[in-house]
């Protein structure tokens, strides 16, 4: 039956665009419009926020006829690690060392300002991750005077470059995944029995929620404050393109692959100080465009010629 309502038509177009982009081949706006049965203008509107609508970012390039081509940036399939995998164990061991000095292993965690976590905090993170895999049981956070809803659906654990280990969850009374909570692990006391499982029926939409839908890495855990917000527009040197074209830093991210091999990236808004720190980490391999405040801040911090 042919869709007749505006909402049904939009859902049909969105589904067809997703199917076309998911093939991973570069397509023109006209090709996408023909496949979806809509106008080129509608295609452009849908592609304004690709990560939110389709679940993956896109990059743009031009063919010899100077037509804009759009291609989905699809992540490689994730291979689950065994519980006894030595790489996995070394990673956990480096993040959560025992009281004794950790044995040297193949993984060294060297994130800026990563706190040293205690044994009970490590157990909280591991239990949180275990419950996030199944999402069939909610958890009650037993921390007196903690200013968040204590009954949460655990969604995953983020190792964040500024905030360390972050537990991401949703309040049990949430009707939709619109207000995630990011709890920095080092803010929890290193005490036993911080988590209690509670009986709740998980909502039907919970298993379809992914972390990249909820948080803007690496800017998800910025503490509240008076920091100015900026829109980021940078251009990466062609030598970095192959390494960075699959990275996702923000839900609003848009990538454009230039004919000279350089990669333009836009996203935002994000806190000015975190954006400057992020841009400076690429040294002379990145040129900051757009917002004057961001350019000025990066210039002050950068030691690159």
Describe the structure using short key phrases.
globular, 305 residues, 5-stranded antiparallel β-sheet, 7-stranded mixed β-sheet, Arc Repressor Mutant, subunit A, alpha+beta, 12 strands
Characterize this entry briefly:
The protein is α+β, with helices and mostly antiparallel strands and 305 residues long. Helix content is 30%, strand content 22%.
Task: Describe the model.
The strands form two sheets. Strands 1-3-2-10-11-9-12 form a seven-stranded mixed beta sheet. It has helices spanning 6-21, 29-36, 40-46, 50-54, 86-95, 119-134, 211-214, 238-244, 272-280, 292-301; strands at residues 27-28, 58-62, 68-72, 138-141, 151-160, 164-171, 181-184, 195-198, 229-236, 254-257, 263-271, 286-290. Strand 5 (151-160) and strand 6 (164-171) form a beta hairpin. The mean pLDDT is 79. It folds into three domains: 6-72, Arc Repressor Mutant, subunit A, CATH 1.10.10; 111-214, no CATH class; 229-301, no CATH class. With 305 residues, the protein is α+β, with helices and mostly antiparallel strands.
Distance between the termini: 62 Å
What shape does the CA trace take? globular
Q: Spans of 5+ residues with little confidence (pLDDT < 50)?
A: none
- In total, the number of domains comes to 3
Radius of gyration: 22 Å
Q: What is the chains' assembly state?
A: single chain
Number of strands: 12
Mean pLDDT: 79
How does the major sheet shape up?
7 strands, mixed
Q: What is the count of DSSP helices, taking H or I runs of 4+ residues?
A: 10
Strand order of the largest sheet: 1-3-2-10-11-9-12
Tell me the fraction of residues in β-strands, as a range: 15-25%
Output the helix-strand order: HEHHHEEHHEEEEEHEHEEHEH
Helix content: 25-40%
By secondary-structure content and strand pairing, the structural class works out as alpha+beta
């Amino acid at each position: 039956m042919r869709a007749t309502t505006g909402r049904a038509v939009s859902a049909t177009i969105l589904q067809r665009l997703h199917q076309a982009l998911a093939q991973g081949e570069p397509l023109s706006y006209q090709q996408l419009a023909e496949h979806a049965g809509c106008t080129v203008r509608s295609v452009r509107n849908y592609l304004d926020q690709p990560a939110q609508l389709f679940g993956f970012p896109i990059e743009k390039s031009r063919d010899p006829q100077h037509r804009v081509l759009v291609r989905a940036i699809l992540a490689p399939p994730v291979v689950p690690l065994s519980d006894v995998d030595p790489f996995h164990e070394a990673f956990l061991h480096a993040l959560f060392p025992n009281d004794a000095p950790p044995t040297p292993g193949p993984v060294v965690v060297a994130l800026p300002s990563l706190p040293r976590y205690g044994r009970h905090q490590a157990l909280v993170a591991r239990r949180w991750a275990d419950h996030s895999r199944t999402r069939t049981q909610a958890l009650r956070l037993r921390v007196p005077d903690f200013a968040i809803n204590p009954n949460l659906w655990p969604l995953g654990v983020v190792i964040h470059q500024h905030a360390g280990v972050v537990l991401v969850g949703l309040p049990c009374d949430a009707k939709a995944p619109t207000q995630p909570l990011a709890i920095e692990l080092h803010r929890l006391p290193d005490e036993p029995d911080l988590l209690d499982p509670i009986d709740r029926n998980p909502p039907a939409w919970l298993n379809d929620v992914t972390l990249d839908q909820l948080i803007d890495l690496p800017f998800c855990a910025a503490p509240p404050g008076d920091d100015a917000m900026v829109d980021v527009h940078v251009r990466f040197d062609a030598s970095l393109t192959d390494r960075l074209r699959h990275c996702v830093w923000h839900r609003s991210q848009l990538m454009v692959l230039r004919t000279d091999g350089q990669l333009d990236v836009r996203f935002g808004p994000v806190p000015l100080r975190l954006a400057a720190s992020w841009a400076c980490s690429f040294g002379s391999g990145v040129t900051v465009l757009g917002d004057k405040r961001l350019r000025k801040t990066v210039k002050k911090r950068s030691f690159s010629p």
